[in-house]
Amino acid sequence: MKKDKYAERKEVKKSNNKIIWKILAITIALVVIGSCTALYKSTSTSKLNDTVVIGKSIISLEAPSFIPIANESGGRDTSFLDDEAGISAYTNVGQQIDLDDAKNAFRTIEYETDDYIIGSVPLPDYPETEDVHCYVHVDGWIVTYYLNDEPVAKIVDWEDYTTEETITGTKLEDGIYEVCNAAYVVAGDIYYYNFEWPVAEKLMIVADAEWYGQIDTFDIMLPSDFIFYERSYSHYANSYSRMYINDNQISILYSEGTDYDTLLPSDLPTDVTHTIKINTNNDGFDAIVLIYRET
């Protein structure tokens, strides 16, 4: 994977980003991590400098204050987001945005008015298939999103996973920063929302890595007193690699690339400890992504 090619961009992201994935170095084999006591218990066979490396992130989902607004006069009509958007990230830059400048970040413009533009934004180091959809309004709002028929795990940004075992941001945040750079503005706090599941409260990402071409595992359990709206996975490798859930192969890569998809409830039923395993010839990374609500 490419390392530090966009170091300056990443530093800006770190200074502005409210949500940072934290990879925890644990010196014991069995752990219960932070506020996820009921949701996430993990063990790992992968060791780096004699420490077990496990990562997780919990992101609160909050509806934007301007959604939904349908303005028949051609103003800030964002009702289309309810129809096509899935997982999204949004910010307000606190000032007017020049749409002519913002358009420089776009690969394609799908719809344009005097007040807003909608289109797709390419991401550094990613093919066109990973472009984020984007809504930009002159009032300072920027919303990036993937479609509601795409797995939430598509947001996982493995290009930000480094040998220091940290991840900052997601592909959706990358899209926001690309637009901000083009428009000469600075992103405000970034929040997340799932338009497909508006009653969902949280997004959880559990990630682990194997750097040395071996087998790595971690365990995860979903409690039955939570409501899970979507389960999905992301699997990256730079050579031949396979991902398993409880010895059932769910993903295989024959060369460098990323695979992601939704999982059936039967793939990750509740109240059962599941072992996620990666078997790779070189570097490989796995993530389980959950959209849920605590009851």
Features:
single chain, 20 strands, six-stranded antiparallel beta sheet, eight-stranded antiparallel beta sheet, disordered N terminus, TATA-Binding Protein, mainly beta, 11% helix, Jelly Rolls, 2 domains
Question: What does this entry look like structurally?
Answer:
The protein has 295 residues and is mainly beta. Helix content is 11%, strand content 43%. The chain has helices spanning 7-16, 79-84, 99-102, 171-183, and strands at 20-26, 30-32, 41-43, 47-48, 51-60, 85-92, 108-112, 116-121, 132-137, 141-147, 167-168, 191-194, 202-210, 215-221, 226-237, 241-245, 248-253, 257-263, 273-280, 284-294. A hairpin with a 2-residue loop joins β4 (47-48) and β5. The radius of gyration is 19 Å and the shape is globular.
Give the secondary structure arrangement, pairings included.
Elements: H1 7-16, E1 20-26, E2 30-32, E3 41-43, E4 47-48, E5 51-60, H2 79-84, E6 85-92, H3 99-102, E7 108-112, E8 116-121, E9 132-137, E10 141-147, E11 167-168, H4 171-183, E12 191-194, E13 202-210, E14 215-221, E15 226-237, E16 241-245, E17 248-253, E18 257-263, E19 273-280, E20 284-294
Antiparallel strand pairs: 1-5, 1-11, 2-3, 4-5, 5-13, 6-10, 6-12, 7-8, 8-9, 9-10, 13-20, 14-19, 15-18, 15-20, 16-17, 16-19
